[in-house]
């Protein structure tokens, strides 16, 4: 073979999202768990194109242009019609466009889940990717949407992370109306309120001292300490709600937010979410501009440095922006690529075996391959994932290969066993071996795998 050309085949910066086979199987396991929970709550799957019209993604400045990847042909062509296209940076804005496109074909409230890749032109750094899998659910109403849908989101989050078994977690809940109403009540100009929310949203990342300094820098020096004190009110949900209900009685937006949060917390309790899995956190702001009501962030206790592992909230105008009517929605999002990468790095989870097969039929004699193929098919027809070893080699080498793949049982058959219509079953973890008739192979293997499980 001639000397290969030199290519730089490393992943581009920010696109290093590849998993090894066992890690990819772990991701699939997470996806299967989320899918089951989403569908238990009646959410239906959809998929939207990776590419949307640029005007959709830029609508009303919902997200800064600095993270949007535009697309165009390598060879410029003014008539190609590609100049106004870009890659989607999240699932929520495309959902709004999807609903507008299919408005008369959907039943409302419309509940969907989506687990696609999204693309963000952010500065690549550890734990931040320019392409990643984002798993979302949203429910959108037509004209109105009951607050019980907001309460249902923490129940879904809690069920997912309980089933994933990745450790203790806490869902932190707040309401944007409380924050914006609070800022108004203490004299923050409306034009400055969004900036204040964005600064408060950085509290976990930069700490209280820097948040206070940023507030002072933008002209909120006289209110900075008051803002810090407010966002750090602590206690049980009931204690915090009681404090809030006694504050700013004339501030209508603030009181509306408190009433909504009270209703959501009551719903969360009725849905059976464990008390240690949720709390009220008045510092949760969610910086995205389209959130207008309930907001959520979920953290893994003991690993708070990983940041939010699931977030979301209620929005009022995003879908209506395209559909031309009032269509409130509420949703949550899990950045699955980042989550799994971090869980593996922290050794909270481990990769699954490389192969999904649980059984390997060894090859002791190429002349017996027709029999080996039949044995493998017999197992597969019983629903047992099985691989054949087509390359003849020493039995010890084949068993080592099986163990590396995570295979649990080896099937061994030589010429004598083949003539007598029987085979050997070897459990690799214990090295125990038994002789069985071929007719009993599948049932015996199923029984042994059940004991292994």
How would you describe what is shown here?
With 453 residues, the protein is α+β, with helices and mostly antiparallel strands. The protein has two domains: 21-345, Bira Bifunctional Protein, Domain 2 (BirA Bifunctional Protein, domain 2), CATH 3.30.930.10; 359-452, 3-Layer(aba) Sandwich (Rossmann fold). Helix content is 40%, strand content 19%. The protein has helices at residues 21-40, 54-57, 92-101, 148-164, 176-185, 190-200, 203-206, 208-217, 221-231, 237-245, 252-270, 320-323, 336-345, 369-381, 395-405, 415-419, 441-452, and strands at 44-45, 51-53, 70-71, 85-87, 110-119, 131-140, 169-175, 278-280, 291-300, 310-315, 329-335, 359-361, 386-388, 409-412, 422-427, 432-437. The strands form three sheets. An eight-stranded mixed sheet has the order 1-5-6-11-10-9-7-8. A five-stranded mixed sheet has the order 13-12-14-15-16. The longest helix is centred in the N-terminal third of the chain and has 20 residues, at 21-40. The chain is elongated. The mean pLDDT is 91.
């Amino acid at each position: 073979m001639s000397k290969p050309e030199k290519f730089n085949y490393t992943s581009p910066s920010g696109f290093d999202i590849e998993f090894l086979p066992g890690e990819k199987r772990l991701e699939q396991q997470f996806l299967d768990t989320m899918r089951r929970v989403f569908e238990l709550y009646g959410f239906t799957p959809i998929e939207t194109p990776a590419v949307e019209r640029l005007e959709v993604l830029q609508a009303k400045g919902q997200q800064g242009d600095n993270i949007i990847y535009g697309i165009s042909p390598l060879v410029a062509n003014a008539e190609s019609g590609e100049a106004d296209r870009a890659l989607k940076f999240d699932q929520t804005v495309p959902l709004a466009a999807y609903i507008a496109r299919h408005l008369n074909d959907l039943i409302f409230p419309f509940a969907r889940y989506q687990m696609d890749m999204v693309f963000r032109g952010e500065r690549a750094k550890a734990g931040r990717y320019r392409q990643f899998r984002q798993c979302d659910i949203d429910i959108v109403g037509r004209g109105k949407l009951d607050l019980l849908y907001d309460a249902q989101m923490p129940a879904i989050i809690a069920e997912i992370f309980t089933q994933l078994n990745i450790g203790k977690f806490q869902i932190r809940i707040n309401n944007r109306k409380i924050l914006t109403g609070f800022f108004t009540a203490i004299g923050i100009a409306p034009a400055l309120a969004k900036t204040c929310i964005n600064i408060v949203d950085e509290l976990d990342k930069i700490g209280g001292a820097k948040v206070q300094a940023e507030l002072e820098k933008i002209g909120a020096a006289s209110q900075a300490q008051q803002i810090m004190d407010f966002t750090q009110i602590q206690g049980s949900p009931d204690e915090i709600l009681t404090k809030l209900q006694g504050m700013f009685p004339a501030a209508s937006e603030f009181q509306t937010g408190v009433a909504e949060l009270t209703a959501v917390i009551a719903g969360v309790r009725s849905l059976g979410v464990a008390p240690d899995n949720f709390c009220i956190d008045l510092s949760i702001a969610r910086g995205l501009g389209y959130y207008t009501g309930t907001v959520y962030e979920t953290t893994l206790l003991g690993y708070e440095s990983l940041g939010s592992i699931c977030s979301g909230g209620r929005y009022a105008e995003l879908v209506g922006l395209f559909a031309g009517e009032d269509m409130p929605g509420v949703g949550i999002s899990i950045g699955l690529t980042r989550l799994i990468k971090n869980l593996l790095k922290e050794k909270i989870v481990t990769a699954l075996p490389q192969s999904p097969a649980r059984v390997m039929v060894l090859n002791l004699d190429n002349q017996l391959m027709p029999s080996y193929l039949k044995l493998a098919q017999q197992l597969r027809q019983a629903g047992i994932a099985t691989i054949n070893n087509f390359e003849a080699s020493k039995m010890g080498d084949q068993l080592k290969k099986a163990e590396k793949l995570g295979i649990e049982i080896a099937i061994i058959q030589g010429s004598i066993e083949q003539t007598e219509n029987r085979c050997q079953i070897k459990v690799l973890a214990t090295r125990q071996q038994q002789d069985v008739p071929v007719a009993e192979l599948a049932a015996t293997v199923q029984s042994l795998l059940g004991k292994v499980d």
